[in-house]
Amino acid sequence: MEIKRKTVDLKEERDLLQGLLFHDTFCKDIVPMLSDTYILQSSHIRQLVKWCKDYYLNFGNAPKEHIWDILESEKRGMKEDYVESMEMILNSIDQTIAFDASFFVRETKKYIDVRNIELTCSQAMGHIKKGETEKAEKAMVDFKKIDKGIGMGVDIINDVTIAEKSLEVEDSLVDFYGAFGELIGRNCRGDIIGLSASTKKGKTWILIEMARQAYLDGLNVVFFSLEMEERIMAQRIFSSLTGKSYTNEESDLRISAFNKDVLEERYIELNKITLNDIVKTQSLLRRDNHVGSIRLFGPEDSGITMSSMRTAIENLYDYEGIKPDVIIFDYDALIASENGMGRESWEKENNKWLRAKFEFAHKMNCLVVMASQLGGAEAFSNEGKMENIAGSKSKPQHVSHWLILNQTPAEKRLGLMRIANTASRHGKFDADDAVVVTQCLDIGRGILDSRWVKEVDNYEDFVNGVVDYDE
To answer: Check: CATH 3.40.50.300 for 178-464?
Structure first.
């Protein structure tokens, strides 16, 4: 009889070991949950994890390179192939690869919970097969969830570590450029950026621009398009990446551009996009930006719920190893209800979605960007205000930044848009201090350049068409 060994996926256990080997914050959260290392499937990783745990409990930090000293001193009496297997595991861990400790703490906790349940069920089934029903029942009754609790908090008066952490300043996750970048200011993992505009004012174009910049910064972007089908969204994104158009004509195109702090008109050559352009751009981006990605999800006939989006993100990590750095929702009013409830439950559902987005931002340790429609009389207005954001009135209370996009018909024709930051958790802001961005939607660019409106010398004259360029 041929005996086949069960194939075990040890990715979670390798991630656990990497965290314990090199990251103190990971050890702090996970070591209290490792009262028993029997839950780990690999005996080699189990032994290494035990040494890491003991080292942390004795010295208060991860062992790092000292794990080799521990292995050298403890290997006496061990089988040679067993030691070689542990050496291979240690050599296979690349500590130069970015390790998101907060994310992997959550993933490891889930893995420990699952393994604890699996072992308890296995123990109960073993008793059942032996006819020991009472022991099976006791095993299930005695099941205890492994949890480190919420800990002991931090001692503000006596804890030097928290004082040191308070001085740390986290760099912005996405480097938005120009005055638009200054408007948003610092954006970090765990932040939520909201933006609103009236109907057909170009919310999606701005979201695509933000996704494009995040990708070019080497980040993984997950984009949920709840209104526009994947084919149309792909056209816009490919245009933004290639600088070419899906129009049937090739011609000179008039755009608005800044000459220092003065607006002027310029003409650029408009070229029709081809499959070769797209494939060539994809190849170049893979070569130059191999760490980033954009994953697009289009609308479904039955609608997309928060739980289905959560599942999609989990599947990306489980099957492809992709963890999102930025998640974009376009737009939140189209998120389907979990239970098919009617519009009378709109406010209640909206609050659930806000909590879910907060969960995305914090539990997945990423930046969340969401678009909302302006409601009421301002749904078709050229000048929006924060108090008219559709849906829950508490939306701006839970975000790090909230942007309002404004555009008159004249500005739209000129490829201009004004953007104001009406709420910010980081630093000071002035809701009346807007930025103007130049656009060229024919080539998929929602933002080409930007200036503060107050610093553009001829803004009103340019929009009103009274600037004489021949002077």
So the answer is: yes
